[in-house]
Description:
This protein is mainly beta and 408 residues long. The protein has two helices and 28 strands. It has helices spanning 3-23, 84-92, and strands at residues 29-30, 43-45, 50-55, 60-65, 80-81, 99-106, 113-119, 126-133, 138-141, 148-153, 177-181, 184-190, 197-203, 210-219, 224-226, 231-239, 242-249, 253-258, 267-269, 271-275, 282-288, 300-305, 310-313, 331-332, 336-338, 343-348, 353-359, 366-372. A hairpin with a 6-residue loop joins strand 12 and strand 13. The relative contact order is 0.12. The model is unreliable at 1-26 (pLDDT under 50).
Amino acid sequence: MHKTAKFAAVAIVMTLVIAMAAYLPATTTQAQSAVELQSAGALEFGPDGVLFIGDSYGAQVVAIETNDMTAPEVAEAPVLVERIDVELAALLGANPLDIVINDMVVNPASQNIYLTVHIGRTIDPGVALARFVKNTGELEILDLSAFEMTSVDLPMAPAFEEELQYGHSERILTVTDLTYYDGDLLIAGVSNQEFESTLRRVSYPFTDDMMIASIEIFHGAHNQQETHAPIVTSLVYEIEGEPYLIAAYTCTPLAKIRLADLEDGAHVLGTTMAELGFGNAPVDMFLYQNPEMLGGGGEKLLITNDQRSATSVTPALFADAELTEGSFFPAGLDQVDMPLTGALHADPLSDTFLVTIRRNVQTGHLNMNSVPMGLWFDAAESIVEMNWPDREASPAGSPNPIDYGFEG
């Protein structure tokens, strides 16, 4: 970085620290009787079956004690719920066209799958929390009043009236991602401050002491520093023994942010490691390894995308990775395109299966099903040479064979 750029960055940081220190209100926590979800978005599991839900409209994060800690009877059993949008609509007495699945997460203890659902695409939607029970294969709507809940308010949330270029309210971006790490919940989103991209950090059980920092990164596709668009999906990964937030943004930088730099009122400069390709938004990310049956190998990070195939990168390369030059196309870290497209949501089910929600291109409905983890992911869904009876079959098999309804 040139000296002039360094001086400019220092000036920005000093200005922001002074402004935020003068503005910061106190956060507040609420117990069960005062908790009410106005929306339900990002999901994350914490310790002992605690489920965190981001409520952007209500400018809060809610923690639910699910007490869901029983291991599944068959850990490797695949998951299949065809037309899950129709199933949810029937349970909620709604039109399938009004069903919006905002997020999906697997409880690592039970392998039960939780989904945040909106009925209607308005700023006053119906809100539901659904659960797929692995042992029974049943989909259910949870009565939240039956669970112990607490919440924490998020100060400096954007106003509903503030709109983006195409009419989206900035308020929907108050919480874009949740990451639990070492007793703390990292809350990504935007604020109503000049530098909108924001990370909030609060310990759990919730307290009134919240760290709030703004985040700036280099955006390869735009060839400039940016401070508005928020983190979409992230996880914590240790680089040379130090924890970093590995974060993906829309259009599509992949950055690392040192957790030690996240101090209250700070303006943090993250390091962009890669550009994943313009005109795209990331969806989910997770660590994985190829199963032994597919050759094994070292640890990988997979990012699913809404307009591109999934991207696999190698975390062992994170330490030295830095992208400082603009590029519309994938650049920086070495990247491998993986055969997993159209995943609206994805989360590891086990070491060998990934569960996804994808739209069937023929019916238009949403299906939730598991696919093999690793090198091929859902390649077995395609008709290829190895599908013919006289050829060797894919070792991955097909978790969701297509039934065209023909007889005989």
